[in-house]
Amino acid sequence: MNATLKFVGTAQDYPSKRAADDRNRDFREIADRFAPPKAGEQAGRCSQCGVPYCSVHCPLHNHIPDWLRLTAEGRLREAYELSNSTSTMPEICGRICPQDRLCEGNCVIEFSGHGSVTIGSVEKYITDTAWEEGWVEPLVPGRARGQSVGVIGAGPAGLTTAEYLRVAGYEVHVYDRHDRAGGLLTYGIPGFKLEKHVVTRRVDRLKAGGIVFHEGFEVGRDATLDELRSRHDAILIATGVYKPRAIKAPGVGSGGVVDALDYLITSNRKSFGDEVAAWDDGSLNAAGKDVVVIGGGDTAMDCVRTAVRQGAKSVKCLYRRDRANMPGSQREVANAEEEGVEFVWLAAPEGFEAAAEGHVAGVRVTKMRLGAPDASGRRAPEPDPGSEETLRADLVIKALGFDPEDLPAMFGAPELGVNRWGTLRVDNKSMMTSLDGVFAAGDIVRGASLVVWAIRDGRDVADRMHAWLRAKAKAAKVAA
């Protein structure tokens, strides 16, 4: 058979998932890794099409057909080097990117009805193998330039920028509010999607390369933005967006109505073996409880699947639109259903009922119907009168998305420009904020988005900062 037509005779296949009853008992990743022959077989299904829509729709524009071909030919080290050339975290993207909406969802053979190439699983396999074989080389700093950079935020955007600028020869300091680097990779995403050693080995590589991490450091508390600017030649703000969106409904302040990120951070800290009071006292622990999660994105899926693993009595996900209009990954929805989560579609909370002691006991729900499309093009939900019901709940998790915090106030920098949504305003070409030498990238600029976009922004802003710093050094030399 023609090498580019293997997809006709070779069916699409993913690494096998553990049975739901088995995976519900722990926080290990739910799928095994491809065995080498299977990885090569699945990579060989790529048709090597003339216009690789998979690469076009990847924010990093990864050379996907090329490293698939190399994997199919058994040239795995070359495949890793090519994959690594455009991404600082390919094995992480392989695990948590919504491939069904990006590369795999735009695969040419998916359009032909044969099922897409399983790109994410191959990407994960390539770099996991590279780590095991010792192909992942240490970070080697470039020739010292005598300039330093401060990066605020140790999430994917900040870590990516730190890596590229360290390789370019800059002294790099990373400041983060948490006691471990990684941002949401470490504390926001559960282990069943991204085991934590996968993140920590990346961070350890950066530390070994001379990047200095200041963990547990809050800008505004431990130093103002101006003080950091005085320490460094340039600053990157890559804090992400952490402010939870609120629900306005009676009883929302009842005990047991909690924010998604607080819940997930508590669970991840417990997975690290930390002492966590909110877990021990049961306030952020779903064990034995009737749990209702409100929201339809990937964070909501992380919450419902975490609650199952914590031993919840029941887990329901409340979403105001239908399944087809859900923003989260359909694969995640399917995984949650397999694990016993009940979805309540076209339903919105009207209020929260509390028991005598002020703790939540139920969620009053109104059924919805989809009306005319809104400004985003999605059909807007509207109440269906007379359809109210109450769902029993003694833990309610709000997973409605995130907005930016008030950074100008937090950082003691009122002159830091923001737009009407509260995200940082930057020049589109330079990626610089309203403050000279202060750049910004990732979710704090674009709003809550995907990890792969944060990596792309980190790569782009590293180029812009490098150019600006070289110009600054040249000007100083001329002035001297």
Automatic annotation (TrEMBL):
Q: Where is the FAD/NAD(P)-binding domain?
A: 149-458
Q: What's the cofactor? A: [4Fe-4S] cluster
Q: Name the UniProt key words of this record, in alphabetical order.
A: 4Fe-4S, Iron, Iron-sulfur, Metal-binding, NADP, Oxidoreductase
Q: What Gene3D superfamilies does the record point to?
A: Alpha-helical ferredoxin, FAD/NAD(P)-binding domain, NAD(P)-binding Rossmann-like Domain
Which ranges carry the Dihydroprymidine dehydrogenase domain? 24-134
What GO molecular function terms would the record report? 4 iron, 4 sulfur cluster binding; glutamate synthase (NADH) activity; glutamate synthase (NADPH) activity; metal ion binding
Instruction: Answer yes or no on keyword Cell membrane.
Output: no
The EC number on file is: 1.4.1.13, 1.4.1.14
Protein name as annotated = Glutamate synthase (NADPH/NADH) small chain
Q: What is the lineage of its organism?
A: Bacteria, Pseudomonadati, Pseudomonadota, Alphaproteobacteria, Sphingomonadales
